[in-house]
Specification:
This protein is of the alpha/beta class. It is 41% helix and 11% strand. InterPro entries: Nucleotide-diphossugar_trans (IPR029044).
Length: 498
């Protein structure tokens, strides 16, 4: 069975590369000015006024907050956030959302140290957000205090929430924490999953134009889900390989080393490349409000996530998890939706969101702990752990490259599945934690020195890539799925830096 929709052709982008390139210097200058000036500008706002981003660009249905004298940028941020989630923070009143397609149903914002950029984004957006989730990564004290204050201000509502885990658990894990929450919601409340960095600036009207298209593209897949649920309920069946029948290859609960989609049936999992590429042909997967594939601010449809699965958490601590997801979407036949009309005024992504180097390059105040986190994370990323994993994955599972014929020539894992190689991930996490501790203790250590220290520590341990194993054996522990364990229990306590 091949799934098709009746779909009409939605907006597509094209061209404009030269014009965008010519505009980039001016766009970057504008972005820098915005980030530098916004906090000070907000602090000077008087009792009877609002930021221009709210007074001139708000959707007509947005509920305005009572005019009260702000005490600084944080209060103005709270006002902007309240406008986004349609809550009066002073009276703890939740206002109903308009029954329209101009709101974000669910958005996740992974955060580390970028408080000024969080303020900028909330005051730049002009549409309602029905559910907003911040996932804190890195446990930097200044961000912890910031988010605690946010939750104290909005303790009466569930429209904004904070998710946390100890330490730096990686960007893919941050997305997956929110994604599991998203997938618990009814389809009508969660037709697409929006992901964003905080260091983006959108031109006025971009989201108002994109969101109705996103809803239309996502709803095309609703009826397919019921058929998939019924089919997966019959597994294991004649399509299930013998090696996966006694311990089925299905896990979505974050308790096991194995992570799979919920609804990609074995019938499609083990098809040839040519057959599998027709499985969801015509359906939309990745959604972009711009004419470019800018994955600092994008969404994925519910159908695509239910069958493609989760972001690969072996891409630790960041990078390649999005390109891995896109490759899997394409291999199932999903296409991208890009909204044209923004070639001359595209969305601006200021700098890499996972490194947040802008905070230092723009001379914004950064705590000692945040500086150490930035420097340590930069060193980890320069060691290319994610890139090394992505390369090894392509060599083993044989489906990253579209010229390959099947997803299961080597380790047998279908494209919606991955195994968390926990000893490798925990070793990298341990390296980063100890490096950051050293950088807090001695802020004079330069970035090049930190990178050399990290390379020496990994050499002493042995190349962490040796910890990549055959997933078809590692996913199980005898007759059951292998459970994840705490890193502290898995690895010995040991000093890694001399």
């Amino acid at each position: 069975m091949v799934f098709h929709h009746s779909g009409k052709k939605l907006l597509q982008g094209g061209g404009g590369v030269f014009r965008r390139a010519a505009l980039m210097p001016f766009m970057f200058i504008f972005a820098v000015i915005t980030i530098l000036v916004l906090p000070g500008f907000l602090e000077q706002i008087t009792e009877a006024t609002y930021p221009p981003s709210l007074t001139t660009a708000l959707a007509p249905t947005t509920t305005r907050q009572p005019t009260q004298a702000p005490s600084g940028p944080f209060d103005r941020y709270l006002d902007c956030l309240a406008a986004r989630i349609n809550v009066d923070r002073h009276t703890a009143t939740e206002y109903p959302f308009p029954n329209d397609n101009i709101s974000i149903p669910y958005i996740v914002l992974p955060v580390t140290v970028e408080e000024p950029m969080m303020i900028s984004l909330m005051c730049n957006l002009t549409v309602h957000i029905r559910r907003l989730v911040y996932v804190q990564n890195g446990s930097v004290p200044s961000m912890t205090a910031f988010l605690d204050a946010v939750m104290a201000a909005f303790k009466s509502t569930r429209r904004v929430r904070v998710m946390r885990k100890r330490g730096n658990f990686g960007y893919a894990t941050a997305l997956n924490m929110a994604l599991r929450d998203f997938l618990q919601l009814p389809f009508d409340e969660a037709p697409f999953f929006f992901m964003a960095n905080n260091d983006v600036l959108l031109p006025g009207g971009m989201m108002e134009k994109a969101l109705p298209l996103f809803y239309s593209a996502s709803r095309e897949g609703r009826d397919v889900l019921d058929a998939l649920e019924a089919e997966v309920a019959t597994e294991p069946n004649e399509h299930t390989p013998q090696r996966f029948r006694d311990v089925p290859l299905r896990s979505t609960d974050a308790r096991h080393a194995l992570v799979t989609s919920r609804l990609l049936p074995d019938r499609i999992r083990y098809q040839s490349l040519e057959q599998r590429r027709t499985a969801f042909a015509g359906f939309y997967g990745d959604l972009y409000p711009d004419s470019r594939d800018q994955r600092a601010f994008w969404a994925v449809t519910r159908l695509a996530l239910e069958v493609t699965g989760y972001f690969d958490e072996n891409c630790y601590p960041a990078y390649h998890e999005d390109t891995d997801m896109i490759q899997r979407l394409r291999l199932l036949g999903f296409k991208a939706l890009r909204v044209s009309g923004w070639e001359k005024t595209p969305m601006i992504h200021i700098v890499g969101g996972s490194q947040i180097a802008a905070l230092k390059s723009l001379a914004l105040p950064v705590s000692k702990e945040a500086q150490a986190f930035l420097k340590g994370s930069h060193a980890i990323i320069r060691r290319r752990f994610s890139a090394r994993y992505a390369s090894a994955k392509c060599r083993s599972v044989m489906w990253c490259n579209s010229t390959k014929v099947a997803p299961n020539k080597q380790d047998g894992m279908p494209l919606d599945a991955f195994v968390i190689y926990q000893r490798r991930v925990c070793t990298i996490e341990q390296l980063e934690e100890q490096l950051i501790d050293r950088l807090i203790a001695d802020p004079s250590i330069s970035s090049p020195t930190a990178i050399r220290m990290l390379a020496n520590a990994e050499r002493d341990l042995g190349n962490v890539d040796r910890l990549l194993l055959d997933g078809t054996f590692y996913y199980r522990n005898g007759s059951t799925l292998r459970l994840l364990t705490d890193c502290a229990a898995l690895l010995p306590s040991r000093p890694l830096f001399r």
